[in-house]
Amino acid sequence: MTGSFHDLPLEQRRLLANRGTSHYSRHLSLLSPEEYGSASGLEGWDRAHLIAHVAYNAAALCNLMEWAQTGLEHPMYPSSTARDEEIETGATLIPDALRNLHDHTVARLRVAWDETSKDAWEHEVRTAQGRTVPASETLWMRTREVWIHAVDLNAGARFSDIPEVILSTLFEEIPAKWRSTGTGADLVLVNEDDGTQIEVGDAPDSFSTSADQRRVVRGTLAGIVRWAAGRGGVAVTATNGSGESTSVPQPPRWL
Length: 255
Hints:
The protein is an alpha+beta fold. The protein has helices spanning 10-29, 47-70, 80-90, 95-114, 137-152, 164-181, 221-228; strands at 124-126, 132-134, 187-191, 196-199, 215-219, 236-240, 245-246. The protein has two domains: 5-157, Four Helix Bundle (Hemerythrin (Met), subunit A) (Up-down Bundle), CATH 1.20.120.450; 164-246, 2-Layer Sandwich (Nonspecific Lipid-transfer Protein, Chain A).
């Protein structure tokens, strides 16, 4: 399997984030103004909500980069409620204003990364989920944001468009998140591209599940990550512990 995104040099990680932004922006440009009000790939959100969310995410990451540079705490959002309200308000903007918001926040984040000193990349900040991470983690946060949400725009992007190193990192990290929260202990994920298998219930021991209770979900790397990320079971199959075909289960919540 391809290595992890996190093991790549900083400039390569920036390149993948920038490529993802270009990919997302290209698919955004395919939408007509009338299509902004149509459904996105995320339940409960139309495309305008999604576009506002991705734009405000870039602005929120700028806050973390300012925190890293200055040492003064600057959270991504004042609160989860404020984040939600910001997205709802942004979704009411006309399409031209939403596109301008996207362009502006993308440019701000690029400048913030450009101006970050070598030492500041390692300064610790806190994500909206409460994780303490080095500022360089913003590269991964934005990378997964733009590549996945490009698919959610429903404008032709696919999980198979996502670079393998990003898919491989998601293939490892999503089950790890389930394991940390004690969910999905009966799931086994199989990447049929190379045979790699992840048993979510491997650890800790309290999450272990007997073999006959396990559900094995198989697919290509792109397909299994799409399913694990909650974007549907296209091109994946499932069997029970006895090897009999069964319906593809809903994955646990990831983010």
